[in-house]
Amino acid sequence: MSTRFERLSLSPRLVDWSIFVLLALELGSGLVSLVTGRPGGWVVFVAHSIGGLCLVVLVFWKLKRVRKRVTRLAAWDRATPVSVLLAAVTLGALGSGIAWVLGGSLALGPWGLLNLHIGLGLVGVVVVAIHLRHRFRPPRTSDIEGRRTVLSYLALVGIGALAWRLQGTFNGLLKTAGADRRFTGSREEGSGAGNDFPVTSWVADDPDPIDVEAWELTVTGEVDRDLSVGYDGIAPGEGGEGGSEAGQEERNNGHLRATLDCTSGWYSVHDWRGVRVGNLLAEADVTENARWVSFRSVTGYRWSLPIEEARDALLATHVGDERLTHGHGAPLRLVAPGRRGFQWVKWVTEVEARERKDPGQWLAVFVSGFDGDGEG
Ligand code: HEM
Q1: In a designed cystine with 334, which of 66, 87, 275, 345 is the match (CB 3.0 to 4.6 A)?
Q2: Which residues line ligand 1 (CB under 6 A)?
Q3: Residue 89: is it exposed, middle or buried by C-beta count within 10 angstroms (0-12/13-18/19+)?
Q4: The CATH classification of domain 216-367, taken from the options 3.90.420.10, 2.40.50.140, 3.40.50.620, 3.40.120.10
Q5: What is the tens place of the pLDDT at every residue in 9-59?
Q6: Nearest residue by C-alpha to atom 14 in ligand 1
């Protein structure tokens, strides 16, 4: 006598293709989540979570169907090891995501549970491709059984949404670490505590400490007057040489309260002090052709912002009342509200006004630190 749950199940081929589509959605929403930092982006994370929970049901149906073939070695063929690896990677991605939401944590050297989750999610792409090479079966319309299929999908989404809701209740009741997550899934760490918040770097972006005396910031590109300013000309309340008296006065009053939200799962709210990018651009007489502003680190790491957004951003020398430490990007880092941590460029030496967006920035953020740049 089949259970109500089993009566609602989909045909094997439809389960396989639904898993494929949901995996693609999970990967897509996961990648988009990495660059989503404004509160309006909450839907990306909720869709990712509910989609992931629906995937748990589908993977359960699939593994129930294939378990006999996998548990009996005699039934293995040369593609089975890849299928087993895919099951392990997928269950790992699902499990680590759910564990994170329920307040779990894991120390893996410089990485944590969410890094593991993202890593497994990315590895899964390769394993799925190899799996499909061996097990590809085209979808068939005959597998769609009208009302029953529609009801099954509705039930699936219903189960995912309900599980998502129940997690919130569970976290609230047990006051788990998952209860105070931001819409991005990140947890609060070290807000308002000066430099006392996690130091993380994207990939291998890790230069030697910078000699502040020898350091200078240049403003170039679509400007009528290139600027070159030393630390004293930038640091709030530490007036010194570099640029006009007025510019310096104007420059030294940057203050911004902003949330730094890292894709490895933590966020921190601080009062940042430094120089408003808009003041620097005005002092350099930015031209009308400028549409983007690229911020470049001593390591070659860089990111660009649309000029209107850049104007309101801050180049910070201080967090709270403290000078930035090296790990947090001293002497100067970008504070870009609404952007994720890896876009808050650290160890900034150059600001470039540009007509076009910088096409090479995605490569730069992945290779900086490997190319021998970064001598302080
Ligand atoms: C680039 C890849 C990925 C990124 C950046 C990513 C990011 C995230 C984040 C930030 C969360 C926590 C959300 C929160 O706390 O509310 C999460 C949860 C989750 N993710 Fe991913 N993910 C990725 C890939 C995947 C893949 C491929 C799968 C499916 C195999 C997946 C399944 C899940 C699940 C099941 C959860 C838990 C949902 C819940 O319990 O509410 N993710 N992911």
Answers
A1: 345
A2: 23, 26-27, 30-31, 33-34, 45, 48-49, 52-53, 55, 90, 93-94, 97-98, 100-101, 114, 117-118, 121-122, 124, 164, 167, 181, 185
A3: buried
A4: 3.90.420.10
A5: 788 999 999 999 999 999 999 999 999 999 999 999 999 999 999 999 999
A6: 185
